[in-house]
Amino acid sequence: MSLDQKHARELSVRVDHQGTSHYFPLRTDDPNLAASRALRIYRAIASRGWKIANERFRRELTVAFRWLDNPLAWTYTTIHTQTNAPRQRSADSFDAGPGSLKVAIAESDAGIRQALVSCISHMERFCCAATFGSAAEAVRELPQRPTALMLVSHSLADKPGTACLEELKAAAPGVAGLLYSVYEDSEELFRATPGGAGTYLLRRTPPTRFLEPITEVLARKNLSNEEMAVGVWQSFKSTVASLPIGGPARQLAHLTQREHEVLALLSKGQLDKEIAERLDISIYTVHEHVRNIFEKLGVHNRTEAVVKFLQK
After folding, report:
1. Domain spanning 247-310 has what CATH number?
2. Predicted structure pTM score
3. 211-229 residue pLDDT tens
């Protein structure tokens, strides 16, 4: 168990127990109070198990929304799960504002489900129309719900999210679908990002803005997956084009040849172990090169480093 000051004004704790780990926000910057709350969380996990602890305490998780896979273009954000969250809310229990794009959620974890509902309720031009706790429930109920966009968890309890999306295409062909994945933190997200794409763009957003890539196509009467993909790609291209010109090229010039090689492989989505094997160096040497790259480019994570690399 170790404290981690992930935010300047708030401490959090990462608890490892029986092969599972999660971050928990402690909602204080006082070290003594934070330590007391962290101990209480750990004792609850050790004595009552993860399921009870997850229902009792908020978790801090990274959620990645998988807009495009090749080129890879994802937004990701940090959420705090809700405690004592309801198992399900029907469409009738949501206040869907006029003119807003109606979003539904398929998520088996009640705390994550309610956190996403809270995020969407604070977004302009979006509203939550319904939530479902399983793939079967979503496929059965969605055709009767006025919904434009369906958010589907990659790890539903009854079947993979990809299989759920395929069934939803047949059951509700007029509804666009978006797969998302949940990770312990951003570093786990970067390590798990699938390889094989020619371009990688991961953009961090605030919790109330992760649907921004489709704001330009909201005026469409029917939001198809194809129209959504075009709008998303234009949004990501605009983001890259708006970054300062010149600076990244000058900074990249300060990298050594080996650091250039490491960064090039990072841009292709390769993991540290794969880079080590490709360059015939140890994984610890890869970590050292990555740290040097961060320092020379003035970045804090791999996504920022790759974006600067792609601007060259």
Report:
1. 1.10.10.10
2. 0.72
3. 988 887 776 666 777 878 8
